[in-house]
Design a protein that fits this description.
13 helices, globular, two-stranded antiparallel ribbon, TIM Barrel, 341 residues, 10-stranded mixed beta sheet, single chain
Length: 341
């Protein structure tokens, strides 16, 4: 049986989860059972944004939200991109902490003329400028795991996950741009707006290569990184390398899970949609604490559908743990004004 572990100070901010207005109660119950004091609903738009904005009002000390653009409307309305900065500011006025830029920008979003839009397209510059002017956060989910850009066959280590989500394969070079090219576009924006803070989710979308993420964080002091749905990749590195990375960048790393609370069921970071038992939820969260807090060897990571391997714990210092679990997100999101404690 896996050891039961509690996070330091028994309180954690999950900087990356997904909640609907209809699932707030279930979300809060799971949070209460697993030491999660506050969670950021990272990316919700359209009617769902309006519904959630109304429903979460009594829970602002437990939940936050980020807006997401509906890029598909640009195809129908050539003026959509020009209205986007105002849409963002209106969302912030309604309580959004910032905007989530999903992976479709850079991979599939096209302008009204049918041209693929790059993240650093000059037509989008007013969006980043407005975000900087009003002091809100930009969260980037750019590209996806390296395996999703490799041939989709039985030799792909994420074959099982791609079978579940075939639309997550970006291996066709005649359709999708190179992965590194899109990441460069994201980084161009981060570098161009040094006073704007960026949450680069899923281990900055390159948890397979800590050396590269380390270089990015050195080059871009406005880049913050969350761990959501990438513990398997982090834990695959030698424990000494993982520990060195998390200790070095302890002021800009944030705990996250990518836990989805959907109308039809939940997702624990990756995998099928279902309603999980309390014991299954506790194992999921406990495995995170085990990775960050112990030096245990070769145990199961929390998202086995992402790859069939074991991970090693990195046993972080108390200071690094407190920043990862709480302090960094608390400061980045400005949670003092919401009574979060």
């Amino acid at each position: 049986m896996d050891p039961e572990i509690s996070p330091t100070e028994n309180k954690v901010i999950d900087s990356h989860l997904h909640v609907q207005a209809e699932t707030i109660d279930r979300c809060l119950r799971v949070m209460d059972e697993n030491h999660i004091r506050y969670g950021m609903n990272i990316g919700i738009g359209g009617e769902n944004f309006q519904k959630f904005q109304k429903a979460y009002q009594p829970h602002k000390d437990r939940l936050g939200m980020m807006y997401i653009f509906e890029w598909g409307k640009w195809q129908e309305d050539p003026d959509y991109v020009n209205r986007a900065p105002d849409l963002l500011e209106a969302a912030v006025e309604q309580g959004a902490h910032g905007v989530k830029i999903w992976k479709n920008l850079g991979l599939t979003v096209k302008d009204p003329q049918g041209n693929l839009v790059s993240i650093d397209d000059e037509r989008l510059l007013p969006i980043w400028q407005r975000a900087q002017d009003i002091g809100c956060l930009v969260a980037f989910h750019t590209v996806d795991p390296v395996a999703f850009f490799e041939p989709w066959n039985s030799d792909n280590e994420r074959w099982e996950e791609l079978e579940l989500h075939p639309d997550w394969s970006f291996a066709d070079r005649s359709v999708y741009p190179p992965r590194d090219e899109v990441l460069d576009q994201r980084n161009n924006v981060i570098k161009a707006f040094p006073d704007l803070k960026f949450q680069c989710v899923h281990g900055a979308n390159f948890s397979e290569n800590l050396d590269v993420v380390d270089q990015w964080m050195d080059q871009m002091p406005n880049m913050y990184v969350d761990t959501s749905a990438r513990l398997g990749e982090f834990g695959r590195h030698p424990a000494s390398a993982g520990k060195a990375f998390f200790e070095k960048h302890q002021d800009r790393l944030m705990f996250g899970t990518d836990r989805i609370f959907g109308k039809e069921g939940d997702v624990q970071g990756a995998g099928p949609t279902k309603i999980f038992s309390r014991e299954e939820d506790q194992w999921f969260y406990n495995t995170h604490w085990r990775y960050f807090q112990t030096e245990d060897k070769q145990f199961d990571h929390p998202t086995p559908i992402q790859g069939n391997w074991k991970i090693d714990g990195i046993g972080l210092s108390t200071d690094a743990l407190n920043k990862l679990y709480w302090d960094n997100a608390f400061k980045l999101y400005g949670l003092g004004q919401y009574g979060v404690a």
